[in-house]
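User:
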Amino acid sequence: MESYIDPSAQIGEGTQIGRFVVIEANVKIGSHCTIGHGVIIHEGTIIGDDVRIDDHTVIGKQPMRAKRSIFQDTKPLPPARIGSQCLIGAGVVIYAGCEIGQGVLVADTAAIRENVTIGDYTIVGRGVTVENLTRIGKKCKLETGCYITAYSVVEDYCFVAPKVTTTNDNYLGRTEERFKHFKGVTLRRGGRIGGGAVILPGIEIGEDAVVAAGAVVTKHIPPRQVWAGVPARYMKDTPVEQLLENQGWD
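Assistant: Predicted structure:
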């Protein structure tokens, strides 16, 4: 048997399904979708119309919990939801509890952990990891290989360049005190982070602020400022012509 489609699954008109696909119980797939070879879609997942899912991708995976993980809730998470007109590449893993908006692109080998929301028309680049309990806004760009740590917020129209690293634990896994301060990064609307920058736990980067490539951010950055260096320091104000209000975007 090349593929398995549970009898309770609902497949929309015109949807094409490749070989060696597994579609579990109560999955709903919209019309005119393309499901590649070797795709696994877990129980209850909801997929909109005109969605493309490439080879060997997994949608709706329930998380694993190591004995020493700080996340010990073992209750099953709700099914993943994928909006219409999404493009999901090869080798992607999208966990249960995720909600992906309309027109989102998730490139090859990206991983989106449980309880993540991603807004409409955002681009998640190749090899990106978005950890659990994170919210990504609409029309963002998360470039190749960047890492968005758990408990983070990235608001609308943000840009995160390749190999950016965000963090959420100032205690590096030692002492019980760390649980009182465990917090990801907040990138406000229109914020931009250059390639290879490192953002320390709990840092907030203000609206339309810019972090230069290679910077190490140890302090909150006010709106509309450019910071650079190790550790990062104020360099200048964000150029007026680069502000979101002057881009003509809706």
